[in-house]
Amino acid sequence: MISILLVEDQVLVRSGLKILLDQEPDINVVAEAGDGEEAVRLCADLKPDVVLMDIRLPKLDGIEAIKRIKEGNGHLEVLVLSAFDDDEVVFQAIQAGASGYILKDITPENLVRAIRAVRAGMSTVHPGVARKLLDRISLMSRGRPNGQARFHSHGLTDREVEILVGIANGASSRELATRLFVSESTVKSHLRAIYRKIGVRDRSQAVAHAIRKGLVR
User: Fold this and answer.
1) Residue 186 lies in a domain
2) CA 20 to 30 Å from 92, out of 60, 64, 84, 120?
């Protein structure tokens, strides 16, 4: 069973989420919170597997709540469910320790999949949000040798760093192959190595992981 703490200040939305999640045989909503301070306290007391939380919260905002939750319970996964896709908010949430960031227009089926994914240790990011993260990484990667040093410290080669920066800039495997004078299959092989080394499954997860783990600033 995946134990869930629901954190949402709108009672109607929170009730709807609970009804939805209670229908899943492997998910158990153990508690609900209406503000950030209550969320931090309940995490310390109940130690749920996943916190599904909004980012705009009274008393203690979501970013600070995530930081405090992760400080006291490093193993606990936080999945942000928000109506806001502002790139600065998304970036701060991932940096604070969130394992994923999804928007409230998500389908019920994909919400459940996202919860199961973060519980399994994977990052999950809404496609529109992922684009913003890619753009942010692209800006960070330009002319930042220190950023490359961080990637190298995680076992990536010069070529793998180059490819990771390329996908952060939005380049396709074919475009990277042309730019680097290698075959497309070689690029894909490098991508598989990158994903394996940093423990992710796809491009969006690579970007989210890089931010959360401090591989880039």
Assistant:
1) yes
2) 120
